[in-house]
Amino acid sequence: MSETSRTSPATLHDVAREAGVSLATASRSLNGSTRKVNEEYRRRVLDAAARLNYSPNLSAQAVARGTTTTVALLVADIADPYFSSIASGVVAEADRERLIVTMAATERDPERELDLVRQLRGQRPRVMILAGSRPTTDPTAGALGEELAAYEASGGRVVLISRNELDFRTVLLDNRAGAEALAHELTALGYRRFAVVTGGEGLRTAADRLDGFRAGLEATGGRLDEADVVRAAFTRDGGYDGMTRLIERGLDGIELVFAANDVMAVGALSAIRDAGLAPGRDLAVAGFDDIPTVRDVTPPLTTVRVPLDELGRRALRLALDDGDEGGAIQTEVVLRESTPAR
Questions:
Q1: Using one digit for the tens of pLDDT, what is the confidence trace for 260-275?
Q2: What are the φ/ψ torsions at residue 200 (nearest 5 degrees)?
Q3: Cα separation of 178 and 44, whole Å?
Q4: Burial class (CB within 10 angstroms; exposed 0-12, middle 13-18, buried 19+) of 248
Q5: Which domain of life is it from (predicted)?
């Protein structure tokens, strides 16, 4: 090892490796978090920090813990009503605490998300909320976890929304169970042949919803052939494109199309009309999220209701209260005219 390496200041990553614990555990042990840390692990972290002469940035801790008034919210797409509804909940809860919310869009790009987290660390927000879906395979996960752990070590608070792929506070959303319940309700209405319009490979939210929907159909006698799963952008235009391709290829007895989110479903409804068909009569459509728009489209959309505003409120509350668990957000199937009984 070079002289420079031997004399470089120890990092939180060095402490975690020396103690044999995760970055998050090392962070909580050193930053005075009230979250539960196994006493043996805590002692190992403290001993490792002493051996390595590790010194956290105490001035940064003081800033993050008490004097900053900023909440940083990272979403995948600011224009998507799913994320804007979550943001509304974060802002409403922040107003109660006299905090200011800043928002940035990751564009579902892991590298961009990592870069944004690095930039935000320099601004020292009091809370950082990550609301975008994680990729199923994420080459940046290790680096992102290290950045977030270092941010927590300086006194900040991290909250994830959806799934806890990283070891931080999380408000859980069970996309799989919601889609499985939807499949049960749709087969109970008499539907048997299904297609799915969903996001591209590698998007965890889309994958969870497809897996849940497929499991629900398998349990209730519905049919979804792999050839009838159409992948497109996880957007309104993606839904339009995916439905158009499905129709042009030939429906071949398909009775209902499940769009993996509501904005895709809205695009699918437009594609059905443009093909000269009547949505709800010639081809049923269901979505997921229950964004406000889908109550006013024609026909009103069957979907899985996610209390999006509550997701945002609970995420910020979890950070400020420093609780251990965010709890699971419950979803609910809402049947409307886009899926009439057969």
A1: 999 999 999 999 999 9
A2: -70, 165
A3: 41
A4: exposed
A5: Bacteria
Q: Among 94, 161, 85, 159, which Cα is nearest to 329's?
A: 161
Distance of CA 297 to the CA centre of its chain: 25
Residue 104 to residue 117: CA distance in whole angstroms:
10
**At which residue do the structure tokens 């409307």 appear?**
336
Edge-to-edge strand list for the sheet holding 193-198: 223-231, 193-198, 256-259, 284-286
162 burial type by CB count under 10 A (0-12 exposed, 13-18 middle, 19+ buried): buried
Q: Which CATH superfamily is domain 175-305 in?
A: Response regulator (3.40.50.2300)
Cα–Cα nearest to 74, from 35, 121, 33: 121
Whole-model pTM: value is: 0.79
The set of residues, in sequence order, having a beta carbon less than 8 Å from that of 14 and lying 6+ positions away, is 52, 54
Alpha carbons within 13 angstroms on the beta-carbon side of residue 87 total 20
Question: Could you give the angle at the alpha carbon of 15 between the alpha carbons of 9 and 18, nearest 5°?
Answer: 120
At residue 198, φ and ψ (nearest 5 deg) are -140, 175
What residues contact residue 63 under an 8 Å CB cut-off, 6+ apart?
A: 124, 155
Assigned token pair, 49: 């920090």
* DSSP-derived 3-state class of residue 119: helix
Is 287 strand, coil or helix?
A: coil
Determine the 3-state secondary structure of 18 from DSSP: helix
Residue ranges per structural domain of the chain: 1-56, 175-305
CATH superfamily entry for domain 1-56: lambda repressor-like DNA-binding domains (1.10.260.40)
Beta-carbon-side half-sphere exposure of residue 340 (alpha carbons within 13 Å)? 9
> What is the rounded distance in angstroms from the CA atom of residue 75 to the CA atom of residue 51?
39
Separation between Cα atoms, residue 90 and residue 94, nearest integer Å: 6
User: What's the rounded Cα separation, in Å, for the pair 68 and 56?
Assistant: 18
